[in-house]
Design brief:
Layout: E1 2-8, E2 17-22, E3 32-35, E4 49-57, E5 64-65, E6 69-71, E7 82-88, E8 94-99, E9 108-111, E10 118-123, E11 129-130, E12 134-137, H1 140-151, E13 184-188, E14 200-206, E15 213-220, E16 225-228, E17 235-238, E18 247-253, H2 254-260, E19 264-274, E20 277-282, E21 286-290, H3 293-296, E22 299-305, E23 309-310, E24 315-316, E25 323-345, E26 351-369, H4 371-379, E27 386-391, E28 404-416, E29 423-431, E30 437-439
Parallel strand pairs: 2-5, 8-11, 13-21
Antiparallel strand pairs: 1-2, 1-4, 3-4, 3-6, 7-8, 7-10, 9-10, 9-12, 14-18, 15-16, 15-19, 17-18, 19-20, 19-21, 22-25, 22-27, 23-24, 25-26, 26-29, 26-30, 27-28, 28-29
Length: 441
């Protein structure tokens, strides 16, 4: 369990909240936040701000799970600002402004050096723009007249454009209901470099603006040591400027990690900087071990390559060479064959075979997958242009499921349990190559 303190910005009014637990490193770590829910008998209060401070793993007596947090106004405890919603006097556009050094007293204001006039609507904490220097007016007419006579005497307007930027979604709050004790296993083999025995994990970042950036790092969770992933030392690194110029990715090759750093528990960290906002994002923890049949038993690995454009994520992988693999608990196999024969009837009522086809279907059953793993499988991996399935179960009718080229045929339904958060996944695959056939023509 990762431990945090919420350090009060004003101990005279409200105390610290000590030793809270979270399943991973928190994406709002180091930021000034407020408790965005009813918590420990206290109502939500955005005016009570705290600094989210990381303590370490199992470093204190656990008091409670981390509540849902919101980003407080300002970037530290000593510089809060007030936010208000205003409406543009001409266009009707609504915008929330923050005033670090004092908010307007009159109803209307204009940012110094700009032409737009804004009239007050209501108080709002979700500020989208900070205003340090402004001029106040009693009405929209008074403000617009000053614009025409002082700032923009020709009445001209400059048309400008803004790039819409979406920050990654924050991690949902922990509701105190533990996911199953799921271990994300990855393997490497220092003797045999066969792909079947050596896992790889790809992570990517598509920057929304040219001044956004990302730094990939490998984190040893036992020591908190971080290793920067900016070359091919631990896998395959692609910086911005490749075939997809706004896309950067890292494909971690666990064989290289095993050789250089050894077995252990690792996370892949993304240090993201977007429009001046810095946030860290972590994968789930990977348990790296040397490959063996016993260690890999009861698992299935599905590899994918991504080549297309993901509309929902606005990411284009075309020509990028991005690939990843996901090792999940479960079973792959139970082959079922379907047959199709086409015949030609002759004048003497004899059926002559023209061709004969065999199509194989395979079942994959994933057992008690946590939400983060199930989502990656169902919403990302299965979108791959090419899929390869490998089974590692010792008790399997067929041992030939090694990097088998497959395509998704159907989803046979997910089984959700009432007493835990895991889900059983049931998928149907077929051969990607439809060449198991005979022809007599």
């Amino acid at each position: 369990m990762f431990n945090y303190d919420l350090i009060s910005c004003n101990n005279l009014l409200y105390p610290d909240i000590s030793c809270l637990g979270f399943n991973n490193r928190h994406p709002q770590e180091g930021l000034v936040v407020f408790v965005d829910q009813i918590f420990q008998g206290n109502a939500r209060d955005a005016q009570k701000s705290y600094t989210l401070t990381y303590l370490g793993v199992d470093t204190c007596v656990f008091s409670d799970y981390m509540p849902k947090l919101g980003n407080a106004n300002g970037n530290d405890c000593t510089q809060p600002y007030t936010g208000f919603m205003y409406e543009n006097c001409e266009t009707g556009e609504k915008r929330v402004f923050g005033f670090p050094s004092g908010d307007p007293i009159d109803l209307v204001f204009r940012i110094d050096g700009e032409c737009e006039c804004w009239v007050y609507i209501s108080e709002d904490n979700d500020s989208t723009q900070l205003v340090d220097s402004f001029t106040e007016y009693s009405s929209c007419n008074e403000c617009l007249e000053s614009v025409n006579t002082e700032l923009c005497p020709t009445g001209e307007r400059t048309l400008s454009y803004a790039v819409k930027v979406s920050l990654p979604d924050p991690v949902p709050p922990n509701r105190g209901f533990k996911e199953c004790c799921y271990i994300s296993k990855v393997f490497g083999d220092l003797i045999d470099n066969a792909p079947y025995k050596n896992d790889f994990t790809g992570v990517y970042y598509k920057r929304p603006t040219s001044n956004s950036g990302v730094v990939f790092k490998l984190v040893d969770t036992a020591t908190s040591t971080e290793y920067t992933l900016n070359d091919n030392t631990y896998g395959t690194f692609q910086d911005f400027g490749g075939v997809q110029s706004e896309l950067s990715f890292m494909i971690v090759e666990w064989r290289k990690v095993l050789s250089l750093l050894g077995a252990g528990n690792y996370q892949i960290k993304q240090e993201v900087s977007t429009v001046g906002v810095a946030q860290d994002y972590y994968t789930n923890t990977f348990t790296l071990q040397p490959f063996s049949i016993n260690a890999a038993d009861d698992t299935v690995r599905i590899d994918c390559t991504q080549e297309g454009f993901l509309v929902d994520k606005n990411v284009d992988f075309k020509g990028s060479g991005f690939k990843t693999s996901l090792r999940v608990s479960g079973f792959f196999g139970r082959t079922e064959r379907s047959y199709e024969q086409k015949n030609l009837s002759t004048r003497d009522y004899k059926n002559v075979q023209i061709n004969f086809s065999i199509e194989k279907e395979y079942k994959y059953q994933g057992l008690k997958l946590p939400q983060c793993v199930a989502d990656e499988l169902m919403d990302f991996i299965l979108k791959g242009n090419e899929l390869f399935a490998s089974d590692y179960n010792k008790n399997n009718h067929d041992y030939n499921f090694v990097l088998l080229p497959v395509e998704l045929q159907d989803n046979e339904g997910s089984d959700y349990k009432t007493l835990d958060r895991g889900v059983n996944v049931n998928l149907l695959f077929t051969d990607r190559f439809k060449n198991n056939r005979k022809t007599n023509c």
